[in-house]
């Protein structure tokens, strides 16, 4: 698919991904196995709330791009944006989110990394002596039906936070509710803080190894900065 502003979907694609038989991958998988399990005793109540707050995987939710539009709307209202300001803000933001989706899914289907639920249940077949299979392991959140690396949530968050920082400055405070947890709001001191918490949520939810989240934010920030600088 041809992006709107990026030169190609693979412009910021990571050069490699965690190898199943590496010590690094074992550490990553064991981390999500512990923190992301449905009934984890290692995950705090706040971490569970973070996972659910940023979920937005359900078909009746407005998905991660919608959540970042909600953030932009809250800040734009607080700042008293004009109609002209908002026209540019939401045009750049949503173009960046579209390109972020193209880039994330490009990487997903180049690397085709197993999701934690599959990798943990079938760890006896990964040629890694530091992982142990648990055929009954379940994550906190439902696992989406596409590959692990890189995290789409994290790419969306990285891109959106970079674009919003371009308009308002990163150190902008805001509070937002969640469609996933009615009545619950969370507060942030910067867009990057929100993007990083959004990425962490995928580890706590058991749906991504953390490298997919960390690398996803980095890719997203590159996309957001490129779109902000080159839009129009």
Query: Major β-sheet, in short?
Result: 2 strands, antiparallel
Radius of gyration over C-alpha positions, nearest whole angstrom: 18 Å
> Helical segment tally?
8
Task: Give the strand tally.
Answer: 2
In CATH, the topology is named Vanadium-containing Chloroperoxidase, domain 2
Give the spatial strand order of the biggest sheet: 1-2
Mean pLDDT: 97
Q: Ends: how far apart?
A: 19 Å
Question: Roughly how much helix do the residues carry, as a percent range?
Answer: 40-55%
- Indicate how many domains the architecture comprises: 1
| CATH class value | Mainly Alpha
CATH architecture: Orthogonal Bundle
| SSE arrangement, N to C | HHHHHHEEHH
Describe the secondary-structure layout.
Elements: H1 23-35, H2 45-53, H3 63-79, H4 83-111, H5 116-121, H6 152-168, E1 174-177, E2 185-188, H7 191-204, H8 210-230
Antiparallel strand pairs: 1-2
What's this entry about, in short?
The chain is mainly α and 232 residues long. The protein has eight helices and two strands; from the N terminus they run H-H-H-H-H-H-E-E-H-H.
Overall description:
With 232 residues, this protein is mainly α. The protein has a single domain (23-230), classed as Vanadium-containing Chloroperoxidase, domain 2, CATH 1.10.606.20. It contains 8 helices and 2 strands; from the N terminus they run H-H-H-H-H-H-E-E-H-H. The longest helix is centred in the middle third of the chain and has 29 residues, at 83-111. It starts with 22 loop residues before the first helix and ends with a helix.
